[in-house]
Amino acid sequence: MIQITDLRKTFSGQDGRAVAALDGLSLTINKGDLAVLMGPNGSGKTTLLRILDGQLLPDAGRIVWGNSAASLPVSRLKVSVAHVPQDPSALAFPEMTLAEHLLWEELNGRMPRFWRRGITARRLEKYRMLLESYGVPALAEALPRPLNTLSAGWRQIFLVLVSAMRSELSRDRDASFDLLLLDEPTSALDAENSRLCLELIKRLHGEGRTIVLATHDPEVALSLRARICILRSGRLVADIPAAELREDTLPRIRALIAGLEATL
Amino acid sequence: MADLLLAILGVLDSGVMQGLVFAGLALSVVISLLVLDFPDLSIEGTFPLGAAVAAVLLTSGEPPVVALVAAGVAGACGGLLTGAVHVRFGMSKLLSGICTAAIFYTLNMWIMGGRGNLPVLDVGSYFTWAEALDASLKQRWYSSLNAFFHPASILAGLLVVILLKGASDFLLGSELGVVLRGIGQNEVAVRQRGRRTGVYKVVGLALSNAYAGIAGAVAAQYQGFSDVNMGIGVLVLGLAGVILGQELFARLGISLASPQATTLAALVGVTLHQVILAAALRAGTPPTSLRLLAGVSLVAVMALRRRRRALTFSW
Ligand SMILES: Nc1ncnc2c1ncn2[C@@H]1O[C@H](COP(=O)(O)OP(=O)(O)OP(=O)(O)O)[C@@H](O)[C@H]1O
Ligand SMILES: [Mg+2]
């Protein structure tokens, strides 16, 4: 369980004016949850995800991970947080191959050895099998290609997959909490890849992964049958459990979000 | 006709020899610039540092192998300094390299006993045997010709270069190499994955400057002296080699998608560049204009590149 209480984060804008990206946000995410964050542009979704993965420190508030007494920082806890950012290239290596990205995950948290080969035939075979087991043989074929030679959509899918495969790639880590953060994973995808991506997320959820996903597309939330958390100006304004999702929820969510104004 | 042939052979001979002498510089630039994305100016200080250390050790009777290794270690220390200044004190990449180069200018003079120049001609160096062999080859086969070729010296130089290339390929293809390349590609992403990038940068710079130091030691032994000013412009030499090699391989359609190919391209490039410079010398360019020529040829290659894109470090 991740218990977020009264989280605050203020940025100083260009003109020196303070922007409250998170303004007293409280939210509880249970182990195995699939929570979808929605809300207009600038409502604080990305900021929340960046705080959860330890990139940003909040100004105030507590995040309690599982039953650990400590609240922060994430880097000190036995927590594995995989984050696919809104701009997926931000945390990727554009000219490195897909295989090398998988190797990065495999090396996660361990010293790289100068006497051990990086990309070996054995590793390539392992990565190929893994990608095929996730139903993307096209990516298995593309293992020796640099990431920036992939189309934006495939890049996105690949990076979601890499983050998802983290636990399979580096078995020796003993994270007590395994969280996957996805920031608008389908925004760059065509219908087919969107479906593929959602299927992947469903599958990961089915395997018991805890996932927090930000999106603007209510269809995504509906097709995932996920809990929907709606943010406005850095606060939680609605929290709809998955069980309450019905056919008529979609227009209600639309209306709810449309009524909220966007902030820059 | 025979004269022309001899001239061409002479140019090739001295160009290839010089290329092998400067090969370590090209590998150094591959590691610092292509892998770490660090335009490292400190090699203008660590190249002559390697030369000075080697010259001092040789004149005090140490064997050439010891001189080469010590020059590598000394160069690595220079890289450590650059890395530490950059990482610990947040000095920019360019400035920390300039700083190291300046510091080592004076240090190099101290190492050579307060002199700016230290000859090693009379003490015997790595190339002594090879040169003796070259001389006897001339005696035996072409003593009547007005030319002198260095096949044995070239083989001796090639041996060092093969060892250097093997070591760099091994390191760049290792897990460590993947992490070093990641830092050059996206430092933020590396840090985000919980790695302290500073340590790796320092390691990479030490490695790159070790190559520069070894190149300096090879140069001193081949030229027969060490000079505090021999570092001026060596970054351009290494850089020109890397760029020329990448362009050549790209035009020939040879994939650069491996550490082996990238280092090979750099070595071919630096040799080709030296052959061009040797040709210019032969055609009557005064040696004092060589640096001008080195710089201009670098600009020319940059301008003539088919695709005006950043250098590749994808493999
Ligand atoms: N690094 C920053 N510097 C200054 N202001 C920032 C920074 N990051 C976010 N903000 C501000 O914080 C607020 C929340 O931004 P955030 O990126 O979290 O919104 P979001 O909900 O992800 O929006 P979107 O739907 O457009 O992705 C915005 O007003 C934004 O301008
Ligand atoms: Mg966002």
Describe it.
The complex is a heterodimer of chains A (264) and B (315). With 264 residues, chain A is of the alpha/beta class. In chain A, 32% of the residues lie in helices and 24% in strands. Chain A has helices at residues 45-52, 98-106, 121-133, 137-141, 152-164, 166-169, 191-206, 218-224, 249-258; strands at residues 2-12, 18-29, 34-38, 60-65, 79-84, 177-183, 210-214, 227-232, 235-240. In chain A, the strands form two sheets. Chain A has a six-stranded mixed sheet, sandwiched between helices. In chain A, helix 5 packs parallel to helix 7 (191-206). The mean pLDDT of chain A is 83. With 315 residues, chain B is mainly α. Chain B has one domain (2-304): ABC transporter involved in vitamin B12 uptake, BtuC, CATH 1.10.3470. Chain B is 74% helix and 2% strand. Chain B has helices at residues 2-35, 43-59, 64-89, 93-111, 128-141, 151-172, 175-185, 187-192, 197-223, 234-252, 259-282, 290-304, and strands at residues 117-119, 225-227. In chain B, helix 2 runs antiparallel to helix 3 (64-89) and helix 2 runs parallel beside helix 4. The model of chain B has no long low-confidence stretch (mean pLDDT 90). At the A-B interface, helix 2 of A face helix 7 and helix 8 of B.
Record the SSE blueprint:
The complex is a heterodimer of chains A (264) and B (315).
Chain A lengths: L1 E11 L5 E12 L4 E5 L6 H8 L7 E6 L13 E6 L13 H9 L14 H13 L3 H5 L10 H13 L1 H4 L7 E7 L7 H16 L3 E5 L3 H7 L2 E6 L2 E6 L8 H10 L6
Parallel strand pairs in A: 3-7, 3-8, 5-6, 6-7
Antiparallel strand pairs in A: 1-2, 1-4, 8-9
Helix pairs in contact in A: 5-7
Chain B lengths: L1 H34 L7 H17 L4 H26 L3 H19 L5 E3 L8 H14 L9 H22 L2 H11 L1 H6 L4 H27 L1 E3 L6 H19 L6 H24 L7 H15 L11
Antiparallel strand pairs in B: 1-2
Helix pairs in contact in B: 1-6, 1-9, 1-10, 1-11, 2-3, 2-4, 2-9, 3-4, 3-9, 5-6, 6-11, 10-11, 10-12, 11-12
Tag the structure with descriptive keywords.
heterodimer, A: alpha/beta, Rossmann fold, three-stranded antiparallel beta sheet, 9 helices, 9 strands, 32% helix, B: 315 residues, mainly alpha, ABC transporter involved in vitamin B12 uptake, BtuC, two-stranded antiparallel sheet, 12 helices, 2% strand, globular, binds adenosine-5'-triphosphate
